[in-house]
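Records of this kind hold a single protein each, on a pair of labelled lines. Below, a sample record shows both lines together.
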Amino acid sequence: MAENLKVTLVKSIIGRPAKHRKVVVSLGLTKLNRSKEFKDSPAIRGMINKVSHLLFVEEVNA
């Protein structure tokens, strides 16, 4: 597994279930095409898996 994950929001959260919106906002992704880096952990992987259809994920070796 990589040390860090770069997560980009590529699809809108408009019209998505409330649970999906909460997960995306808790990841800190509020606008389209914004990216954030996270340490690779099971909690972050679980959040990403929940809304994977809205995100683009890259593994980054820092």
